Amino acid sequence: MHVFLLLCVGTLAAAPITPKKAESAAPLSPAQKADYAQVIQPLFDAHCVSCHGPKKEKGKLRLDSLEATLKGGKNPTFTLGRPNSSMLLARVFLERGAGDVMPPKAERPLTEKQKEALYTFIEGQPIPADLAKAANADTQAALAAAKAAAPANPPLRK
What would the pLDDT profile of 29-87 be if each residue is shown by its tens digit? Predict the structure, then answer.
């Protein structure tokens, strides 16, 4: 009995100083992987990868692949099924001009449909087809605007 009591007290005493392990991410369903590939990755490519990709890794975060996105950076990007604890969503939903809003002020902001699609994905729900279509149209518009704003290559000198 004394040994059991000592074990219980010892466990309780050590609990606050034992680091909490990161939650293990549940594997994505085939539908979630499809949503990611068809809606979320293009959104990240259009708005995020220039700062969070292979050339730059701000915050040690890469969003250029599903594996990198799920890994996160300095902190976890999100936990599927827990959108309200997502650092990514918190920054995406900040008002323009707020300190850590993503994408930053200089970049084109996400549209409401893109934000809704991202929230739905992180919530762990399937992205409805009409929302996916609207978000993809907004993403294509962002890519076209970025391409139009890109400086033309100067002619090569001989």
Answer: 899 999 999 999 999 999 999 999 999 989 899 999 999 998 888 888 888 899 999 98
Length of the chain as a residue count:
158
Cα separations in angstroms, 144 against 95, 131, 150, 154: 24, 20, 10, 20
Q: Supply the Cα-derived Rg of the chain in whole angstroms.
A: 21
- Please give the angle made by the CA atoms of 49, 53 and 58, to the nearest 5 degrees: 95
For the stretch 102-152, pLDDT in tens is 888 767 889 999 999 999 999 999 999 999 999 999 989 988 887 887 666
Residue 5 is assigned to a structural domain of this protein: no
Beta-carbon contacts of 83 under 8 Å, excluding residues fewer than 6 positions away, are: 89, 119, 122, 123
In a domain, 7, yes or no: no
Number of domains in the chain: 1
Domain enclosing residue 64, as ranges: 29-144
End-to-end Cα, the chain, rounded Å: 90
